[in-house]
Amino acid sequence: MGVQCITKKPKILLVPYPAQGHVNPMLKLGLALLTHGLQPIIVTPEFIHRRIVANVDLNDYQVRFMSIPDGFSGEEGPYDFFAIEKSMENIMPNHLETLLHELDEDDDGTVVCMVIDLLASWAIQVATRCGIPAAGFWPAMQATYRLITSIPEMIQADLISETGKFTNTCQPLLSTEDLPWLIGTQASRKARLKFWIRILDRLTSLRWLLLNSFPQEFVIHDDEYQDDDYIAPPHNNPIIFPVGPLTEPSLTTPKNPSFWKEDTNCLEWLDHQKPNSVIYISFGSWVSPIGDAKIKTLALTLQSLNRPFIWVLAKSWRHGLPNGYSDTVSKQGKLVLWAPQFQVLQHKAVGLYLTHCGWNSTMEAIQCRKRLLCYPMAGDQFVNCKYIVKVWKIGVKVKGLGQKDVEEAVKKVMKDEEMEERLRKIYHRTMGEETSSRVAGNLKAFVLGLDQLQQNSLH
Ligand SMILES: O=c1ccn([C@@H]2O[C@H](COP(=O)(O)OP(=O)(O)O[C@H]3O[C@H](CO)[C@@H](O)[C@H](O)[C@H]3O)[C@@H](O)[C@H]2O)c(=O)[nH]1
Fold it and tell me: What confidence score (pLDDT) does residue 76 get?
């Protein structure tokens, strides 16, 4: 019995926020933790679990996926931000606690830690109640993390109002429109600010924070990099470990656990296109439809550009399309409901990516060395866009979706002969060997810390 206990791997529960851009990096984190002798288990609400199971074979993953009830009916959704928040705060905690007890007592290794997406901060309280050490997970840029963690000071210093707008300009790089919490109506902005402040309160009880980014995001040239100018956490807790970007090459993941069925036909179609000719358009998984008028404008713009394109457009986004659009453009472009994005970006026919600047998409574009046309819409996307355009200079922001604006941006981005080299540099900085070994070292330090904590609690 004793020997059996020793061979059982300690369990580590990973709790992502229920969105594609959060589950994907959490899986990669889980796979990385596997190699450190842990047994990672990803816990999602049932509505997400159902989508994953419908689209991928869970046996392909060495990481376990488990679900907890979310209080939603069995239908597909859509569930908006506040409906999900309500479920996270009121329904999921008790179910997670029950699951934790079951997992702890099932004779297959105890739960030694929880890694909790900061946007799912409800689970921090569950960890505290159950006496399980918790690490936070920040799925995006450190710059956005810093911005969010400075909300209380900004409020205190009267730099932002109660709806989260700048009272005067205090960040040289950002304007009010770029602030990640300014989404929707006045009431929803206030509610989102409250959501973030609650996260900050809970954050203080975390021991560690795993950051899906890299140190010194503002540096592009290697010679400007200073190793000692590392992240200085504002408080002692949590200790920050940059473990990102959690992307494809360093880890052999089968594929992302897609919530929707990937249309792989577009890969064959790409094989018939000229190198660097195709524009790939995708606005990620999380932003709400941008309205019929904008969709119609973009549809006509794409047609007028006379370039081949692949456009990821969910059903709920398609109402504004001109009648018969898909057939009209069939020789020029492909509309897909969901793409195998990483494979599309890897393809040599793809030359440009019109993106919403989600963090995962941004990193995937860098990994595949693709130039970016940026159209940020919500949350951290404005900050990411600033870095893409102003700091790393690997893309251009499109002012609007009309023909003139997009044409201008395409010209600018294609004309920039140094962009290729800058893409190479930022790729090297974020995903090169040195970064990979730093990430491995940081993960090791985190696991060692965890181990030490275990040892101390046994004595
Ligand atoms: O057709 C598609 C479109 C997307 N993806 C994948 O879906 C993920 C999308 O992630 P991301 O680019 O981060 O966008 P969102 O899903 O919209 O992510 C949310 O979460 C991110 C991490 O916090 C934030 O940076 C974004 O702003 C926020 O919208 C990526 O891995 C893509 O490869 C596909 O596989 N197929």
Answer: 64
- The answer to whether 140 and 131 have CB atoms below 8 angstroms apart is no
Indicate whether 86 belongs to any domain.
yes
Residue 300 sits in the same domain as residue 222: no
19 lines ligand 1 (CB under 6 A): yes
The token duo for 59 is: 């046996």
With a 6 A CB cut-off, is 250 part of the ligand 1 pocket? no
Q: Which ipTM score applies to this complex?
A: 0.99
> Of 79-83, 113-117, 289-293, 344-348, which range is least confident?
79-83
Q: Indicate the number of domains in the chain.
A: 2
Instruction: Please indicate whether residue 263, judged by its CB atom, sits closer than 6 Å to ligand 1.
Output: no
Give 128 Cα–ligand 1 centroid separation in angstroms: 30
Looking at residue 228, its pLDDT comes to 43
Nearest Cα residue to atom 21 of ligand 1: 21
Q: Whose CA is nearest to atom 31 of ligand 1?
A: 360
Of residues 253 and 363, more confidence is placed in 363
The mean per-residue pLDDT over the stretch 248-267 comes to 78
174 burial (CB, 10 Å; 0-12 / 13-18 / 19+) is: middle
Q: How far is the CA of 323 from the centre of ligand 1 (A)?
A: 29
Is 374 inside a domain boundary? yes
Give the number of the atom of ligand 1 that is nearest the alpha carbon of residue 359.
25
Residue type, 238: P
- Let me know whether 273 and 376 are in one domain: yes
Q: What is the CATH number of the domain that holds 15?
A: 3.40.50.2000
What value does the mean pLDDT take over residues 10-36?
A: 95
Domain containing 354: what range? 264-430
